[in-house]
Design brief:
The complex is a heterodimer.
Chain A (H helix, E strand, L loop, with lengths): L3 E4 L2 E5 L4 E7 L6 E6 L5 E7 L5 E4 L2 E6 L4 E6 L8 E8 L10 E3 L3 E6 L1
Parallel strand pairs in A: 2-11
Antiparallel strand pairs in A: 1-3, 3-8, 4-5, 4-9, 6-7, 7-8, 9-10, 9-11
Chain B lengths: L4 E3 L2 E4 L5 E6 L6 E8 L3 E9 L2 E4 L8 E7 L2 E6 L8 E11 L5 E6 L3 E5 L1
Parallel strand pairs in B: 2-11
Antiparallel strand pairs in B: 1-3, 3-8, 4-5, 4-9, 5-6, 7-8, 9-10, 9-11
Classes of the chains: A mainly beta, B mainly beta.
C-alpha cells in the first residue's frame, strides 16, 4: 500500500526566512503533485513533477523530485504572509498498473508566515 | 468553464437522515473523484470513476455510502443513514490528461460540501 508522509505537519515561520517541506512516499512512482489549500477553500494545483531530478519553480516556491530516494521537497524562499496555507503533496498510485489517475495525498503541512 | 460544481455547499442534517451530495465535473474530463477531508484523517479518496464507470471504491468507508455517475456531467454521493462521524468536507474533483513529455493527469477540485451531522 502506498503511503505518503509529509513533514513538518505545522510550520510557523517569519517573513523573509527560507524553509523546506519534505514529502516521502513508500513505493515507486513517476508522478508527484503539490497542491495548496487556503483555509476553508478548495485545493489548487501548484506543481507536477514527472521525472527524477525534475525541478519546478513559481515565485518563491520551488519543488523538486528524487524518485530514487522517493522524496520530494517544496522549498520556500523569503517567505511572505500570502504563502500562509496548507500544502499537500500527492503521489500517483498507478505506476505498476495501467495508466489511471489515482492520487494518494500526504498529511499536509500547515504553513503560517508571520511578520 | 465554470470549474467543478458541487451542491449544496453546506449541509446540516440529523443523524439517521439521508444525505445526497452532487457534483458536476468539468466538461470533457474523463475521471471523477470523491474525497473526504477531516482533521483526524486528512484527505481520503472515497471512490473514482472513469468514463462514468466506477474504477475503485475501496475507500468508501461502509455500505452506508454509495456513489453513482449516471452520465458524464453528473455524479452523486449518498449517505444513508448519516451519522455524526460522517461530518466532514466532501470534495469532488475531475481530471483531464495533459500531453507534454510523458504526460500526466491534472485534477481540478470543486469548492467542497461541508456536511455536519448532529
Amino acid at each position: 500500500e502506498l503511503k505518503v508522509e509529509q513533514n513538518p505537519l505545522f510550520l510557523s515561520m517569519q517573513e523573509g526566512k527560507n524553509y523546506t517541506i519534505y514529502c516521502n512516499y513508500s513505493t515507486t512512482s513517476d508522478r508527484l503533485y503539490w497542491y495548496r489549500q487556503d483555509p476553508g477553500k478548495s485545493l489548487e494545483s501548484l506543481f507536477v513533477l514527472l521525472s527524477n531530478g525534475a525541478v519546478k519553480q513559481e515565485g518563491r516556491l520551488m519543488a523538486s523530485l528524487d524518485t530514487k530516494a522517493r522524496l520530494s521537497t517544496l522549498h520556500i524562499t523569503a517567505a511572505v504572509h500570502d504563502l500562509s496555507a496548507t500544502y499537500f503533496c500527492a503521489v500517483d498510485a498507478s505506476h505498476f498498473k495501467y495508466n489511471t489517475d489515482k492520487l494518494i495525498f500526504g498529511t499536509g503541512t500547515r504553513l503560517q508566515v508571520f511578520p | 468553464d465554470a470549474g467543478v460544481i458541487q451542491s449544496p455547499r453546506h449541509e446540516v442534517t440529523e443523524m439517521g437522515q439521508e444525505v445526497t451530495l452532487r457534483c458536476k465535473p468539468i466538461s470533457g474530463h474523463d475521471y471523477l473523484f470523491w474525497y473526504r477531508q477531516t482533521m483526524m484523517r486528512g484527505l481520503e479518496l472515497l471512490i473514482y470513476f472513469n468514463n462514468n464507470v466506477p474504477i475503485d471504491d475501496s475507500g468508501m468507508p461502509e455500505d452506508r455510502f454509495s456513489a453513482k455517475m449516471p452520465n458524464a456531467s453528473f455524479s452523486t454521493l449518498k449517505i444513508q443513514p448519516s451519522e455524526p462521524r460522517d461530518s466532514a468536507v466532501y470534495f469532488c474533483a475531475s481530471s483531464l490528461w495533459v500531453w507534454g513529455g510523458d504526460g500526466f493527469y491534472e485534477q481540478y477540485f470543486g469548492p467542497g460540501t461541508r456536511l455536519t451531522v448532529t
